[in-house]
Amino acid sequence: MSLTAPLYFRDLIQLFGGFREVRNFMKWLNYYGFKWYRVLREAGVNRSRSYLAYVLERAVEIQRLGPVEKPSKRPTNTFLLQSLDVVESFDGLGIAAVARREVDSDVVSVADSFLTSEFYTFLSIAMFRLFGADRCTSVLVPYAYKGVEAEVLKGFNERLVLHEPEYQLPGAAKALCDVEAECAVSIYLFHRSRAVLNDLRCLRSKVKRLGVAAHRSRRRPLLWPSAPPRDS
């Protein structure tokens, strides 16, 4: 991770109420993440049958999560509370029903609420500032969910190349390996991609600078400011 990262994320952490507030919020996310993972396993819904199950299993693997106790205190920061409300709304739909696509319209509504929230916007801005997206002649946005991240990125760089095979954004590319750009930035590639290693190989071969972030418990976020190392 870049040594300058704390300088960029310090303002974000202060905006979210400080390290204590952020740590408490992460405990809530880990609590719900593992709860949903356990519920789906007990319901017999695994990664081969549901993309949501795949995402949760990947999150548990990446963060090495075990059973998480429900936090006793809710965040007091407005932005964190906004995000937690979205998570709890999602939980209220019933994770098994979500995975079986029985409540799709409600899921889309909740997902849109999160991805258009101020919390997610500020998180994206911090990531793009750290990466230096404004210095790229073109920026690839892998898995640009309905263009939400792209709208934020336009404030840094209007020369965007969208990749969104599932939602078919106007002009979006469907095959990541066919897309070329100077830079690529992705916050949730590890959770959205069904073939992470293949996607990383495609990105490495098509872009000059690659920024990929993934959170792991007890560790700082990972950021590759350039192409990842080749397979050994």
Describe the structure.
This protein is α/β, with parallel strands linked by helices. It has two domains: 5-115, no CATH class; 124-223, Rossmann fold (3-Layer(aba) Sandwich), CATH 3.40.50.150. It has helices at residues 5-15, 19-42, 51-63, 78-92, 95-99, 104-115, 118-131, 148-153, 189-192, 196-206; strands at residues 139-142, 160-163, 183-186, 209-214, 222-223. The chain has a five-stranded mixed β-sheet. Helix 8 links the parallel strand 1 and strand 2. Helix 1 packs antiparallel against helix 7, helix 2 (19-42) packs across helix 3 and helix 2 packs parallel to helix 4. The chain is globular, with a radius of gyration of 17 Å. It starts with a helix and ends in a 9-residue tail after the last strand.
